[in-house]
Amino acid sequence: MKIFPALSLMLFAAPLQAHPHIFINTGLSILVDEQNRLTHVKVTWEYDELYSLLVTEDMEVDSDYDGMSTPEDVAKLTGFDAHWIDGYNGDLVGTLGDAALELSGPTAPTAELVDGKIITTHMRSVIGTPQITEPVIFKPYDGTYYTAYDVTLPVTLEGGSGCGVTVDTPDLDAALAMTKAELSQMPVDMDMEAAGLGDIGERFASEIQVTCSAL
């Protein structure tokens, strides 16, 4: 498989950074069956215009530069960000109560180019299809904060009985101020992970909560 420079974000561990280089608007569609078991999560990523431009140039997509995709472009783009290395969590962390959720790798990828932005989707199965007896929390984020995820696209809940979903956005100004203060105390040559900031992206993450009433 040919690896394009702009695609390395999804394929390899990004270096630890103190600020994001790629910006993604994201949304989730959470699928629950009739017994309130969590079955799948569909993830939507809308890449920023600069990163989209890098990808389309690397992949020789949008040759007329109109910012829209042709069927041929769609065929090239589909799945470009769905080739993950082992251990990559897809920048999505889920918990049920105190227990971590195990999610499959991406399936059923789609892609399109709209107004100069690449928009992709992929589906992830929830291993074990656990019943939602406690709140489910999803947090889309990159621990290194190389990529910033902003939950501005729809978050929906499909199926279930007596279930609801809410989105809690972080106080970005407070998180940024805290991060700047911590970084200012670090030696220039110190690794962020060694300083205990290897999962710094979580403090900038929106929290998506799913609850269901007892059946």
Automatic annotation (TrEMBL):
<keyword id="KW-0418">Kinase</keyword>
<dbReference type="InterPro" id="IPR010412">
    <property type="entry name" value="DUF1007"/>
</dbReference>
<keyword id="KW-0808">Transferase</keyword>
<keyword id="KW-0732">Signal</keyword>
<protein>
    <submittedName>
        <fullName>Polyphosphate kinase</fullName>
        <ecNumber>2.7.4.1</ecNumber>
    </submittedName>
</protein>
<feature type="signal peptide">
    <location>
        <begin position="1"/>
        <end position="18"/>
    </location>
</feature>
<dbReference type="GO" id="GO:0008976">
    <property type="term" value="F:polyphosphate kinase activity"/>
</dbReference>
<dbReference type="Pfam" id="PF06226">
    <property type="entry name" value="DUF1007"/>
</dbReference>
